[in-house]
Structures are given as structure tokens and as C-alpha cells.
Amino acid sequence: MTQTKRFLALTLTLTLLICCAPLSLSASAAWYDEAVSYATENGLMDGIDGDFAPETPADRLTVVEALWRMMGRPEAGESAVFPDMGANPAVDWAAEAGIITGYADGSFGAEDPVSQEQIAAMLWRYEGSPKASRAAYTDADSIASYAAMAVAWTQVTGVMNGVGGDRFAPGGNVTRAQLAQIVMNYLENKTAPAVWEAPELPAYTAGAIPIARQGLFSSGGTVTEPVEGEYNSQMNWLDSTRAGNTAHVDHANVLYQIPYQIPENDNGHPIVYLHGFGQSRMGWMTTPDGREGWSDIFLRYGHPAFLVDQPRRGEAGNTVSMTADGFLDAWAADSKDYKPGDQAWYTHFRIGRVAPERYEGSQFPAGDEVQNQFFRQMTPNTGSFDQSVAAAALGQVMADMKEMTGSKSIFITHSQGGAVGWDVDPANVAAIVAIEPGGTPASGSDQYKALLEAKVPIIVYFGDYIDNGPEDIMSTGFWKGIRDGALAFAEQYNADGGDATVIDLPKIGLTGNSHFMFQELNNRDIADHIEGWLAEHDLT
Question: Which pLDDT value is given to residue 145?
């Protein structure tokens, strides 16, 4: 239902006059007083023998009539839908609108009570059955499948807020007081709808992607001092002392593709992609099931792609000393054995509790070969991760991009790469799109001040299974903390004159995403959302 329709419905209901005396309430200063007054004064609900009877269960006829009045008393067809009701305009309208159905015998059952999940489904159907995430209630597993998305939608829009204690009680009867609260919440529209509608986007190139130029190069890095002694050109690589040899180390390696810029698809703003821990640029280029990755999707929107392997990773593996990072890559500081982690990272990345299972509603592609391909994307560090080294190299990447294209770069980071993104000199950064970064800048820090002074717009994305993830898995609490920290960062950044947005995908109707949202079945939907945000910032 559009905002205009809601406004008209509210206007119509507020023009109704109540001729009878005010209804008496069964208790003073009760939680429902405001809602009951709202419902009665605006003609949305009637009393029972002069009393509102707030604790009485609301029957089907009462609920349907309240919704009908809430919608401005729309007209229905001439013929009665249910034989046991006769020609009732409210019931006939609800049936024709697809809000209710009758019983198998064709009856309506006017006096039957209505459960919490049933009224959620009625409102959700009227709204056009918008997509929504799994509800974040402790008893969400007991919600009937037909109402699961409806309950989630009522929660994120604020139309229904449960019964307390983080419970929804889906099978519990809706009382008349609760019905009054629900219709007031709906009409006041206290929270924006959960549905995300795709914005107007620039031209999207279908079919083959026309590439004008592509190649590889390295940015940044250092050169070691020569090994003590004189270089022996005769022995060269056979000289085990390597006297006189230097090494070019700790640079970033960049694969780039620049599309042909056609008039209707000419933006000139390149995107630099930086992977997270255990990953390389491969993760942006494809998906485990072989669909297009984000680099191709954004190429179709005209954004040149610059795909980075950070220092000490992938094709930028040259470094001074091998990794001593016993937590992530090796068994111990003196070990040369790689530390296994398939199952550990799978759980932490919120794909499923234990591989190969996936969470209910997951957008992660299914199949044994898909999981095989995903695990084989994992790439260890050759040297221990050093954020300052990575940030220096990526800063040079940004400078090289500016020289090559004439434009500042949009910087898309993921996970561990997000930390690097905050540290890069923002002089050549047009915007930062952080996909579930491992954290956000502390207010007042050097990172924070540099980004704020450079007026870098920032958008941060989080996927599903955070608020509704298993409580006994430590990663659930970890990601809640990261997400909540990002919300606090954005609030302060905006208060200080910056431009920051945090997108909780389930709350805009994009559900089922893990830490690897750019590789999942709805990766194009999320890319479109990013492109819409870039359009709003004149970066397309």
C-alpha cells in the first residue's frame, strides 16, 4: 500500500464522528488507554454494551471490521461472499482483497477468535505480501510457515511488537486492546515499511561486457636492503647465500578491467575491491555456483573494476618473513603447517551452523560442488597480516587509479579489508562501501577525523542471522556487537556533519544473506541497492 493510500485512509477515518458517549475503560492508566481512545474516537472500533472490554479476545468479525474502517470503508462487490454473513461490506471487502479466507464449509466464522499470527498475515496480505526477514522473537520457530514472513514484516515496521519478553506468542488470541494498538500503529506508520523498492538506476549493459582495456600491475610496496656480500652473477640462483640480492615485497597486486564508456552508461568512477581474511580478488569476480560476481555486475553499470590482492596474499605474496600468525594461518609461530579452518570459518561467516547445512531461508547457493568451490577460494597469508602495510599499499592503489582514470575511486571492502579501508588516505577515495567490516572507526580517532574532514560518504551493509542467529554460537554475539558499533559510528558521524548509512538487509526485505552476500543468490539485488546509493551521491 502506498504512503498516499495510507494518508487517504487515515484522513477518511479521522473525519468520522462518534455520536455515542465515550466508552468506559476497565482500568485507568493502562498500557492500552491511548490506543483504545484512538480506536474509539476515530470510529475504528465499537464497544460492547458501553464498555470497550479491552481484555476480551477479538473475534473475526471485529478484526475485519476494524481493518475495513482503518482502510476508509472501501466498497465491495454486490454479492455476499459467505452465506453465514449475508451482505456484509467489511467481510466482503476483506475476502475480495485476499485478506481473509473462509472455512472449508464456506462459512466465515464471525465469532471465532483471531490469533496473533493470523492478524499479522491479514495486514501483510493487504500490503501486497512484502518480503521480510525471519522474525527476531525467541519463539519464532513456533510461527506457522504461512505467517512467518508476515510476522517479520509487522515487527520491522512496528505494526506489532510482540507480547513482551522478546516473545510473539503466535497462537495466542488477539485481545480487543491489542487490536486497537495494532490499528493505531498501522495508521501512524511509526516505522518505515520493510520493503525496499529498487531506485532509478543508470543504464545496465546486458549480454557481453565490452571491455576497452584490461591488465595487471602492482602498487606500493618496498624493496629490501641487499643481503650482505657481493652478488655472484655466475652462480646467480645457485648461490644459497643470496649475497647482494634484494626483494620487492609488500605491494598490492591489481587486476583491472575498464569497460567501453557509451553515452548512456558513462560514469568514470572506478571501483576498487578489497577482499577479507582468507580471500583474494576471486571472491568479487564469480560465485561458488558460477554466476556473475559483483565486478561483472558493476562493470555492466559502467564502473571500471580494480580488483586487489592485498600485500602478503594471493598474487601479492612476496614478503620478508613467512607468517607467524598462529591464530589465523599457522599452527604456531614456528610452524610451517597451514592451520585447517573450513568448518570454523563456515560457522563464523553465518552460512550455517555446521557445514554443509545452511540456515533456513539462506541465499547461499546449495550443493556439494558449490561448497567445494567456496572452500577452495580460501587463501592464506604468506606473511603475517599488518594493517599499516596493507593500508599503505592500498593508498597507492587509489593514487594510481586517480592517475589512470582521472577520478577518485569508490572503495568496496569486505570483512578484514574493511579495517584497511578506514586507514587508507581518503584523498583519492570518493566513497566507501563496507560489507560487514570487522569494525568501524572510533569516534574522534585519527581514522574518523580523516574520513570526516575529507567528507567521504560511507555505507555499511550487514546480512541476516545476526538478530535471529543461534544464541549459543559466539559468532552471533560477535556480529551483533559489530553491527551495533557501526550504528553508533554512523549516528556520531552524521551528527558531526558526515554522511554515513548502515543497511541491515533483513530490515529492507533482503533476507537470507551470510557474510558473503556478494556471492549469494540475490547478489544482484544488493548490488542494485549499492548502485542506487551511488546514484544518490552522483557517483554513477
Answer: 76
Length of the chain: 540
CA atoms of 320 and 87, how far apart (whole Å): 84
How many other CB atoms are there within 10 angstroms of residue 367's CB atom? 11
C-alpha cell at 482: 559489530
Write the DSSP string, 516-533: TGGGSTTHHHHHHHHHHH
Give the pLDDT confidence of 77-131 residue by residue, as tens digits: 666 678 888 788 888 888 888 888 888 788 888 899 999 999 998 988 888 887 6
Question: Are 167 and 143 in contact, with CB atoms under 8 Å apart?
Answer: no
Spell out where 228-290 has E strands. 248-249, 252-259, 271-274
Give the confidence band of 198 by pLDDT, cuts at 50, 70, 90: low
Neighbouring residues of 397: CB distance < 8 A, sequence distance ≥ 6 = 219, 220, 252, 254, 272, 306, 308
Q: What residue spans define the domains of the chain?
A: 3-188, 216-320+362-536
Which residue spans within 290-408 are E strands per DSSP? 305-309
Q: Crossing angle of helices 3-14/60-70, nearest 10°?
A: 100
Residues 230, 62: Cα–Cα separation, whole Å: 95
Answer positive or negative: Cα dihedral of 455, 257, 396, 349.
Answer: positive
For 273, 304, 501, 513, the CA distances from 294, given in Å and listed in that order, are: 9, 12, 20, 15
Give the integer Cα–Cα distance in Å for 340 and 345: 10
pLDDT digits (tens, 9 = 90+) for 302-314: 999 999 999 999 9
Q: Quickly name the fold that domain 216-320+362-536 has.
A: Rossmann fold (3.40.50)
Contact present, 230 and 243 (Cβ < 8 Å):
yes
What confidence tens digit (pLDDT) does each residue in 464-522 have? 999 999 999 999 999 999 999 999 999 999 999 999 999 999 888 889 999 999 999 99
Work out whether the CA dihedral 520, 523, 529, 535 comes out positive or negative: positive
pLDDT at position 338, please?
Answer: 84
d(CA 227, CA 472): 53
- Res 119: pLDDT: 93
First to last CA, the chain: 30
Residue 365 has pLDDT above 50, yes or no: yes
Please tell me the distance from the alpha carbon of residue 159 to that of residue 191, in angstroms, as a whole number: 8
